[in-house]
Write a structure and sequence with these properties.
With about 400 residues, the protein is mainly beta. Helices cover about 10% and strands about 35% of the residues. A hairpin with a 3-residue loop joins strand 19 and strand 20.
Length: about 400
Protein backbone atom coordinates (compact mmCIF):
# COMPACT_ATOMS: atom_id res chain seq x y z
CA UNK A 1 0.00 0.00 0.00
CA UNK A 2 1.70 3.15 -1.23
CA UNK A 3 2.62 5.91 1.20
CA UNK A 4 2.13 9.65 0.99
CA UNK A 5 4.33 12.47 2.26
CA UNK A 6 3.97 14.04 5.64
CA UNK A 7 2.52 17.26 4.13
CA UNK A 8 -0.97 15.77 3.75
CA UNK A 9 -0.83 14.61 7.36
CA UNK A 10 0.17 18.02 8.69
CA UNK A 11 -2.78 19.64 6.90
CA UNK A 12 -5.31 17.78 9.05
CA UNK A 13 -5.25 18.81 12.71
CA UNK A 14 -6.34 16.50 15.49
CA UNK A 15 -9.54 18.54 15.91
CA UNK A 16 -10.41 18.31 12.24
CA UNK A 17 -9.65 14.62 12.19
CA UNK A 18 -11.78 13.78 15.20
CA UNK A 19 -14.96 15.28 13.82
CA UNK A 20 -14.42 15.40 10.08
CA UNK A 21 -17.66 15.14 8.14
CA UNK A 22 -17.23 14.21 4.51
CA UNK A 23 -20.07 15.82 2.54
CA UNK A 24 -21.48 14.01 -0.41
CA UNK A 25 -20.78 16.79 -2.85
CA UNK A 26 -20.33 16.37 -6.58
CA UNK A 27 -16.87 17.87 -6.96
CA UNK A 28 -13.86 15.62 -6.98
CA UNK A 29 -10.27 16.56 -6.26
CA UNK A 30 -7.61 15.73 -8.80
CA UNK A 31 -4.69 13.77 -7.48
CA UNK A 32 -1.69 12.36 -9.28
CA UNK A 33 -2.11 8.73 -10.31
CA UNK A 34 0.26 6.18 -8.93
CA UNK A 35 0.58 2.59 -9.84
CA UNK A 36 1.47 -0.34 -7.70
CA UNK A 37 4.84 -2.01 -8.20
CA UNK A 38 5.37 -5.46 -7.06
CA UNK A 39 8.56 -7.28 -6.84
CA UNK A 40 8.55 -9.52 -9.24
CA UNK A 41 6.36 -33.08 -17.54
CA UNK A 42 6.66 -36.66 -16.63
CA UNK A 43 6.22 -39.13 -19.48
CA UNK A 44 7.32 -36.62 -22.09
CA UNK A 45 10.65 -36.04 -20.33
CA UNK A 46 11.19 -39.78 -20.03
CA UNK A 47 10.61 -40.29 -23.75
CA UNK A 48 13.08 -37.53 -24.56
CA UNK A 49 15.73 -39.33 -22.57
CA UNK A 50 14.96 -42.63 -24.29
CA UNK A 51 14.96 -41.37 -27.85
CA UNK A 52 18.23 -43.18 -28.47
CA UNK A 53 16.82 -46.56 -27.50
CA UNK A 54 14.70 -48.81 -29.69
CA UNK A 55 11.83 -48.78 -27.20
CA UNK A 56 10.56 -45.36 -26.01
CA UNK A 57 7.80 -44.43 -23.59
CA UNK A 58 4.98 -45.26 -26.02
CA UNK A 59 7.00 -47.98 -27.81
CA UNK A 60 7.43 -49.94 -24.62
CA UNK A 61 3.65 -50.18 -24.24
CA UNK A 62 3.27 -51.42 -27.82
CA UNK A 63 6.11 -53.90 -27.43
CA UNK A 64 4.78 -55.36 -24.18
CA UNK A 65 1.20 -55.36 -25.44
CA UNK A 66 2.21 -57.25 -28.59
CA UNK A 67 4.23 -59.79 -26.62
CA UNK A 68 1.33 -60.34 -24.25
CA UNK A 69 -1.10 -60.88 -27.09
CA UNK A 70 1.21 -63.46 -28.69
CA UNK A 71 1.50 -65.38 -25.46
CA UNK A 72 -2.22 -65.09 -24.62
CA UNK A 73 -1.39 -63.26 -21.41
CA UNK A 74 -2.92 -60.19 -19.83
CA UNK A 75 -0.34 -57.83 -18.36
CA UNK A 76 -1.36 -54.89 -16.13
CA UNK A 77 0.81 -51.97 -17.13
CA UNK A 78 1.42 -49.15 -14.62
CA UNK A 79 -0.35 -45.89 -15.35
CA UNK A 80 2.09 -43.16 -16.33
CA UNK A 81 1.01 -39.90 -14.65
CA UNK A 82 1.35 -36.73 -16.71
CA UNK A 83 1.99 -33.27 -15.35
CA UNK A 84 -1.61 -32.34 -16.23
CA UNK A 85 -2.87 -35.20 -14.07
CA UNK A 86 -0.67 -34.02 -11.21
CA UNK A 87 -2.18 -30.53 -11.46
CA UNK A 88 -5.69 -32.02 -11.31
CA UNK A 89 -4.76 -33.66 -8.03
CA UNK A 90 -4.06 -30.22 -6.57
CA UNK A 91 -6.75 -28.33 -4.68
CA UNK A 92 -6.25 -25.24 -6.86
CA UNK A 93 -6.65 -24.36 -10.53
CA UNK A 94 -5.41 -21.37 -12.48
CA UNK A 95 -8.19 -19.20 -13.92
CA UNK A 96 -7.60 -17.31 -17.20
CA UNK A 97 -8.46 -13.62 -17.00
CA UNK A 98 -9.27 -11.05 -19.72
CA UNK A 99 -6.78 -8.43 -18.53
CA UNK A 100 -3.70 -6.71 -19.91
CA UNK A 101 -0.21 -7.92 -18.96
CA UNK A 102 1.16 -6.22 -15.88
CA UNK A 103 -2.17 -5.70 -14.11
CA UNK A 104 -1.86 -6.28 -10.36
CA UNK A 105 -4.92 -7.90 -8.76
CA UNK A 106 -5.72 -6.42 -5.35
CA UNK A 107 -9.02 -7.68 -3.93
CA UNK A 108 -12.22 -9.60 -4.61
CA UNK A 109 -15.60 -10.08 -3.01
CA UNK A 110 -18.83 -11.99 -3.67
CA UNK A 111 -22.44 -10.92 -3.23
CA UNK A 112 -23.89 -12.83 -0.24
CA UNK A 113 -27.40 -12.77 -1.71
CA UNK A 114 -26.07 -14.07 -5.05
CA UNK A 115 -23.20 -16.41 -4.04
CA UNK A 116 -22.04 -17.12 -7.59
CA UNK A 117 -21.68 -13.44 -8.39
CA UNK A 118 -18.47 -11.66 -7.49
CA UNK A 119 -16.10 -8.85 -8.47
CA UNK A 120 -12.31 -8.76 -8.85
CA UNK A 121 -10.29 -5.52 -8.56
CA UNK A 122 -6.85 -4.37 -9.61
CA UNK A 123 -4.63 -1.65 -10.96
CA UNK A 124 -5.30 0.18 -14.22
CA UNK A 125 -8.96 0.57 -13.23
CA UNK A 126 -9.47 -3.19 -13.50
CA UNK A 127 -12.94 -4.44 -12.56
CA UNK A 128 -13.97 -8.00 -13.49
CA UNK A 129 -17.25 -9.79 -12.75
CA UNK A 130 -18.10 -13.48 -12.41
CA UNK A 131 -21.53 -15.10 -12.35
CA UNK A 132 -20.39 -18.73 -12.04
CA UNK A 133 -18.53 -18.72 -8.73
CA UNK A 134 -15.20 -17.58 -10.14
CA UNK A 135 -14.74 -20.09 -12.96
CA UNK A 136 -14.83 -17.33 -15.58
CA UNK A 137 -14.58 -13.55 -15.46
CA UNK A 138 -15.68 -10.71 -17.75
CA UNK A 139 -14.59 -7.06 -17.71
CA UNK A 140 -16.90 -4.39 -16.29
CA UNK A 141 -16.68 -0.64 -16.55
CA UNK A 142 -17.93 2.13 -14.29
CA UNK A 143 -18.92 5.20 -16.30
CA UNK A 144 -18.54 7.59 -13.37
CA UNK A 145 -14.93 6.47 -12.90
CA UNK A 146 -14.08 6.96 -16.55
CA UNK A 147 -15.21 10.58 -16.82
CA UNK A 148 -11.82 11.87 -15.66
CA UNK A 149 -8.30 11.31 -16.92
CA UNK A 150 -7.27 9.24 -13.89
CA UNK A 151 -6.17 5.64 -14.14
CA UNK A 152 -7.58 4.46 -10.83
CA UNK A 153 -6.16 1.68 -8.72
CA UNK A 154 -9.10 -0.12 -7.10
CA UNK A 155 -7.83 -1.24 -3.68
CA UNK A 156 -10.71 -2.85 -1.79
CA UNK A 157 -14.27 -4.16 -2.25
CA UNK A 158 -16.88 -5.45 0.21
CA UNK A 159 -20.52 -6.59 0.11
CA UNK A 160 -23.26 -6.96 2.70
CA UNK A 161 -26.45 -8.38 1.24
CA UNK A 162 -26.74 -6.71 -2.17
CA UNK A 163 -25.02 -3.53 -1.03
CA UNK A 164 -21.39 -3.10 -2.02
CA UNK A 165 -18.53 -0.62 -1.83
CA UNK A 166 -15.29 -0.04 -3.76
CA UNK A 167 -12.47 2.33 -2.78
CA UNK A 168 -9.36 3.22 -4.73
CA UNK A 169 -6.48 5.58 -5.39
CA UNK A 170 -6.51 8.48 -6.20
CA UNK A 171 -9.27 8.74 -3.62
CA UNK A 172 -12.45 7.31 -5.11
CA UNK A 173 -15.54 5.70 -3.55
CA UNK A 174 -18.15 3.67 -5.45
CA UNK A 175 -21.42 2.33 -4.02
CA UNK A 176 -24.03 -0.13 -5.26
CA UNK A 177 -27.34 -1.18 -3.76
CA UNK A 178 -28.27 -3.73 -6.45
CA UNK A 179 -25.49 -6.34 -6.27
CA UNK A 180 -23.22 -4.48 -8.66
CA UNK A 181 -25.64 -3.95 -11.53
CA UNK A 182 -24.90 -0.22 -11.28
CA UNK A 183 -22.25 1.73 -9.35
CA UNK A 184 -22.64 5.28 -8.07
CA UNK A 185 -19.68 7.60 -7.54
CA UNK A 186 -19.54 9.23 -4.09
CA UNK A 187 -16.92 12.02 -3.97
CA UNK A 188 -14.65 12.16 -0.94
CA UNK A 189 -13.42 15.23 0.87
CA UNK A 190 -10.03 16.60 -0.18
CA UNK A 191 -9.15 16.80 3.53
CA UNK A 192 -9.23 13.02 3.90
CA UNK A 193 -5.91 12.05 5.56
CA UNK A 194 -4.16 9.48 3.38
CA UNK A 195 -5.40 7.16 0.67
CA UNK A 196 -8.34 4.78 1.26
CA UNK A 197 -7.00 1.22 1.44
CA UNK A 198 -9.74 -0.87 3.12
CA UNK A 199 -13.54 -0.69 2.89
CA UNK A 200 -15.89 -2.98 4.83
CA UNK A 201 -19.66 -3.18 4.38
CA UNK A 202 -21.14 -3.53 7.86
CA UNK A 203 -24.92 -3.25 7.41
CA UNK A 204 -27.75 -1.52 5.60
CA UNK A 205 -26.23 1.70 4.20
CA UNK A 206 -23.35 1.21 6.65
CA UNK A 207 -19.63 0.88 5.95
CA UNK A 208 -16.21 1.35 7.52
CA UNK A 209 -13.27 2.90 5.65
CA UNK A 210 -9.56 2.97 6.57
CA UNK A 211 -6.75 5.04 5.04
CA UNK A 212 -3.04 4.28 4.93
CA UNK A 213 -2.45 7.04 7.51
CA UNK A 214 -4.68 5.33 10.07
CA UNK A 215 -7.90 7.30 9.62
CA UNK A 216 -10.99 5.18 10.32
CA UNK A 217 -14.38 6.50 9.23
CA UNK A 218 -17.88 5.03 9.51
CA UNK A 219 -21.08 5.91 7.68
CA UNK A 220 -24.67 4.95 8.40
CA UNK A 221 -26.38 6.75 5.50
CA UNK A 222 -24.82 5.23 2.36
CA UNK A 223 -21.82 7.55 2.40
CA UNK A 224 -23.70 10.84 2.71
CA UNK A 225 -21.71 11.62 5.88
CA UNK A 226 -18.73 9.99 7.56
CA UNK A 227 -17.71 10.11 11.21
CA UNK A 228 -14.18 9.57 12.52
CA UNK A 229 -13.77 6.50 14.75
CA UNK A 230 -10.27 7.47 15.99
CA UNK A 231 -9.21 10.84 17.33
CA UNK A 232 -5.86 11.24 15.54
CA UNK A 233 -3.62 9.84 12.85
CA UNK A 234 -1.02 7.21 13.62
CA UNK A 235 1.77 9.77 13.23
CA UNK A 236 0.21 11.92 15.94
CA UNK A 237 -0.18 8.85 18.15
CA UNK A 238 3.46 7.89 17.72
CA UNK A 239 4.67 11.42 18.37
CA UNK A 240 2.97 11.16 21.76
CA UNK A 241 4.16 7.64 22.55
CA UNK A 242 7.67 7.59 21.05
CA UNK A 243 9.15 7.91 24.52
CA UNK A 244 7.24 4.82 25.65
CA UNK A 245 9.75 2.45 24.03
CA UNK A 246 8.25 1.68 20.62
CA UNK A 247 11.29 0.68 18.58
CA UNK A 248 11.55 2.47 15.24
CA UNK A 249 8.69 4.86 15.90
CA UNK A 250 10.95 7.90 15.55
CA UNK A 251 11.68 6.82 11.98
CA UNK A 252 8.05 6.24 11.11
CA UNK A 253 6.99 7.61 7.71
CA UNK A 254 3.34 8.05 8.56
CA UNK A 255 1.75 5.25 6.53
CA UNK A 256 0.78 1.62 6.87
CA UNK A 257 2.17 -1.11 4.64
CA UNK A 258 -0.68 -3.56 5.29
CA UNK A 259 -4.02 -3.33 7.12
CA UNK A 260 -6.16 -6.36 8.01
CA UNK A 261 -9.56 -6.47 9.70
CA UNK A 262 -10.98 -9.31 11.78
CA UNK A 263 -14.64 -10.42 11.49
CA UNK A 264 -15.21 -8.77 14.88
CA UNK A 265 -13.99 -5.39 13.59
CA UNK A 266 -10.50 -5.36 15.14
CA UNK A 267 -7.58 -4.11 13.04
CA UNK A 268 -3.89 -4.96 12.84
CA UNK A 269 -1.58 -2.86 10.67
CA UNK A 270 2.14 -3.07 9.86
CA UNK A 271 4.24 0.08 9.65
CA UNK A 272 5.65 0.99 6.26
CA UNK A 273 9.17 -0.01 7.36
CA UNK A 274 8.01 -3.20 9.03
CA UNK A 275 9.71 -2.35 12.31
CA UNK A 276 6.58 -2.45 14.49
CA UNK A 277 2.83 -2.97 14.26
CA UNK A 278 -0.31 -1.30 15.57
CA UNK A 279 -3.76 -2.54 16.58
CA UNK A 280 -7.17 -0.97 17.06
CA UNK A 281 -10.36 -2.28 18.61
CA UNK A 282 -13.80 -0.64 18.31
CA UNK A 283 -14.19 1.99 21.01
CA UNK A 284 -10.50 2.77 21.40
CA UNK A 285 -9.66 6.45 20.74
CA UNK A 286 -6.20 5.73 19.30
CA UNK A 287 -4.20 3.05 17.53
CA UNK A 288 -2.08 1.00 19.96
CA UNK A 289 1.62 0.51 18.96
CA UNK A 290 3.48 -2.77 19.59
CA UNK A 291 7.11 -3.83 19.28
CA UNK A 292 7.95 -6.71 16.98
CA UNK A 293 9.37 -9.86 18.60
CA UNK A 294 11.71 -10.84 15.78
CA UNK A 295 15.00 -9.31 14.67
CA UNK A 296 13.69 -9.41 11.10
CA UNK A 297 11.22 -6.83 9.90
CA UNK A 298 7.52 -7.66 9.61
CA UNK A 299 6.17 -8.45 6.15
CA UNK A 300 2.48 -8.87 6.96
CA UNK A 301 0.06 -9.68 9.78
CA UNK A 302 -3.49 -10.94 9.99
CA UNK A 303 -6.10 -12.84 11.97
CA UNK A 304 -6.42 -16.58 12.39
CA UNK A 305 -9.78 -18.34 12.31
CA UNK A 306 -9.59 -18.83 16.09
CA UNK A 307 -9.20 -15.08 16.68
CA UNK A 308 -5.43 -15.02 17.27
CA UNK A 309 -2.79 -13.18 15.27
CA UNK A 310 -0.32 -14.50 12.71
CA UNK A 311 2.83 -12.67 11.67
CA UNK A 312 5.28 -13.24 8.81
CA UNK A 313 8.71 -11.66 8.61
CA UNK A 314 10.94 -10.92 5.67
CA UNK A 315 12.91 -13.96 4.69
CA UNK A 316 10.15 -16.51 5.17
CA UNK A 317 9.56 -16.80 8.93
CA UNK A 318 6.08 -17.41 10.36
CA UNK A 319 4.97 -16.64 13.93
CA UNK A 320 1.65 -17.48 15.59
CA UNK A 321 0.23 -15.59 18.54
CA UNK A 322 0.01 -17.63 21.74
CA UNK A 323 -3.33 -16.12 22.76
CA UNK A 324 -6.63 -15.21 21.23
CA UNK A 325 -7.02 -11.60 20.20
CA UNK A 326 -4.26 -9.00 20.41
CA UNK A 327 -1.06 -10.07 22.12
CA UNK A 328 2.70 -9.58 21.80
CA UNK A 329 3.69 -13.16 22.66
CA UNK A 330 4.40 -15.17 19.48
CA UNK A 331 5.80 -18.63 18.78
CA UNK A 332 7.74 -19.39 15.60
CA UNK A 333 6.26 -22.10 13.37
CA UNK A 334 8.34 -24.49 11.30
CA UNK A 335 7.47 -23.82 7.67
CA UNK A 336 9.35 -24.99 4.52
CA UNK A 337 9.55 -21.59 2.82
CA UNK A 338 12.86 -22.45 1.08
CA UNK A 339 14.08 -18.92 1.79
CA UNK A 340 11.29 -17.27 -0.18
CA UNK A 341 9.24 -14.64 1.60
CA UNK A 342 5.75 -15.55 2.82
CA UNK A 343 3.40 -12.76 1.81
CA UNK A 344 -0.01 -13.80 3.13
CA UNK A 345 -2.03 -16.44 5.00
CA UNK A 346 -5.66 -17.40 4.53
CA UNK A 347 -7.68 -19.64 6.85
CA UNK A 348 -10.27 -22.05 5.49
CA UNK A 349 -11.05 -23.33 8.99
CA UNK A 350 -9.45 -23.25 12.43
CA UNK A 351 -7.16 -26.12 11.45
CA UNK A 352 -6.66 -25.61 7.70
CA UNK A 353 -4.77 -22.63 6.34
CA UNK A 354 -2.81 -21.75 3.22
CA UNK A 355 0.35 -19.63 2.97
CA UNK A 356 1.40 -17.93 -0.27
CA UNK A 357 4.69 -16.33 -1.17
CA UNK A 358 7.40 -15.62 -3.65
CA UNK A 359 8.20 -17.73 -6.70
CA UNK A 360 4.79 -19.41 -6.77
CA UNK A 361 5.07 -20.82 -3.25
CA UNK A 362 1.85 -22.34 -1.87
CA UNK A 363 1.85 -24.18 1.48
CA UNK A 364 -0.90 -25.92 3.45
CA UNK A 365 -1.46 -26.85 7.08
CA UNK A 366 -4.24 -29.04 8.47
CA UNK A 367 -3.24 -28.89 12.13
CA UNK A 368 -3.44 -25.20 12.91
CA UNK A 369 0.07 -24.36 11.70
CA UNK A 370 2.18 -27.00 13.41
CA UNK A 371 3.19 -28.71 10.14
CA UNK A 372 3.11 -27.50 6.52
CA UNK A 373 3.31 -29.17 3.11
CA UNK A 374 3.75 -27.79 -0.40
CA UNK A 375 1.10 -27.77 -3.09
CA UNK A 376 3.09 -28.00 -6.31
CA UNK A 377 0.37 -26.60 -8.58
CA UNK A 378 2.04 -23.19 -8.42
CA UNK A 379 5.63 -24.41 -8.94
CA UNK A 380 5.41 -23.69 -12.67
CA UNK A 381 3.87 -20.23 -12.16
CA UNK A 382 6.48 -17.50 -12.57
CA UNK A 383 4.77 -15.09 -10.19
CA UNK A 384 4.69 -14.02 -6.58
CA UNK A 385 1.49 -15.05 -4.80
CA UNK A 386 0.60 -12.32 -2.32
CA UNK A 387 -3.04 -12.68 -1.24
CA UNK A 388 -5.09 -15.64 0.03
CA UNK A 389 -8.83 -15.11 0.50
CA UNK A 390 -11.38 -17.66 1.72
CA UNK A 391 -14.94 -16.36 1.58
CA UNK A 392 -16.19 -19.62 3.14
CA UNK A 393 -14.91 -23.18 3.48
CA UNK A 394 -15.71 -23.94 -0.16
CA UNK A 395 -14.80 -20.72 -1.93
CA UNK A 396 -11.20 -19.52 -1.92
CA UNK A 397 -8.81 -17.63 -4.20
CA UNK A 398 -5.12 -16.79 -4.41
CA UNK A 399 -3.96 -13.60 -6.13
CA UNK A 400 -0.57 -13.15 -7.79
CA UNK A 401 1.23 -10.59 -9.89
CA UNK A 402 0.98 -10.56 -13.69
CA UNK A 403 -2.74 -11.29 -13.39
CA UNK A 404 -2.47 -14.71 -11.72
CA UNK A 405 -5.65 -16.01 -10.09
CA UNK A 406 -5.99 -19.46 -8.50
CA UNK A 407 -9.39 -20.89 -7.55
CA UNK A 408 -9.88 -23.38 -4.73
CA UNK A 409 -11.40 -26.69 -5.79
CA UNK A 410 -13.70 -27.70 -2.94
Amino acid sequence: MSGLGRSAMAAASSQQFAGLALPRNRSSTAASSQRAAFARASCSSSSDQNQGSSVGCGGRRSFLGGAAASAGLVIALPTLRSSAAEEQLSQWEKVPLPIDPGVVLLDLSFVPDEPNRGFLLGTRQTLLETKDGGRSWAPRSVASAEEEDFNYRFNSISFKGKEGWIIGKPAILLHTSNAGETWERIPLSSRLPGNPVVIQATGDKQAEMVTDEGAIYVTSNAGYNWKAAVEETVSATLNRTVSSGISGASYYTGTFNTVNRSPQGDYVAVSSRGNFYMTWEPGQPYWQPHNRRSARRIQNMGWRADGGLWLVVRGGGLYLGKCSGVCEDFEEASIPSRGFGILDLGYRSKDEAWAAGGSGMLLKTTDGGNTWSRDRVADSIAANLYSVKFLDNKKGFVLGNDGVLLRYLS
